[in-house]
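Protocol step 4 of 6: structure prediction from sequence.
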Amino acid sequence: MLDVTEEATVARYQPEARAAVDGILSRGAVPILVGGSGLYVSSVIYDFRFPGTDPVLRERLEAELAAQGPGMLYRRLLEVDPAAAKNIGASNGRRLVRALEVVALTGEPVSASLPEEPVLWRPSAIIGLSAPREELTARLDARVERMWSAGLVDEAAALIPLGLERGVTASRAIGYAQALAELRGDLTRAEAIAQTQQLTRRYARRQVSWFKRYPGIRWLPYDGDGLADGESLTDAAIAAAALDRL
C-alpha cells in the first residue's frame, strides 16, 4: 500500500505483484489478477521489462508539466514517439513525463520496450468480461454517482492533511482530482461528477482497446449464465483454459 504522497509506477508494481503471485502459487493456490490498467496487468502476466528512472530528469520534466501543462509534453512526445503519444493521450501528464523520460534514457521509443508479441511470464488463462457499450456507459456513470454519494469528497478532504494535494499520482487520479477541485471551489458538485464520468468513460474505452489486443483472451458476457448466478471467476478461468486446449 502506498501513501497518498507516493508515486505509483508500473516499474514498482511489477516486482511486488509478481512476488505476490509466486507466494500464492507456493501455497498451492490459484492467483487471480484483476484489472484495471492495461499496462499494469500486462507488466505482470507478460515478460515486460522497464527502464530505470533518473531523478534529475524526472524532476525537470515534472517542473515543465507543472509550469506549462500536459499539452506541451504531449506535442513533444508526438515528435519522438507518435504511437506512445496516441496511447497515452494529451491529458495524462504523469504518463507523458514517464514516456519522455524513457525516450531520453534509452534513445528509443517507449513502444520499443514493449514486445509486439508478448511472451507469458507464467502459464495463464486470460478472461475478459464484455458488456454492450450503452449498458457499460450507464454503469460507469452510475458508479461515479455512487462514489460521490458514498462520500468521496469527504474522503478527499480527510486526506488533504496527509498530503493528498502533493501526491504525484493520487492527486491526479480520476475522481480524487475532481473532488479536490470541488473542495477548492473550482468545480461545482455537478461539474465534478460530470467531468469524472467523462474521464472514466474515456479511460474505459482505452482499457477495452488495450485488452482486445491480448492474444488468446477469452471474452465472456459479464451477465452470462453462471457468472450472473455467482459462478466464480476461478471456474471461468478453468473453463477458458480448457477451451484453449481443444
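Step 5 (inspection) to follow. The two ends are 40 Å apart (CA to CA).
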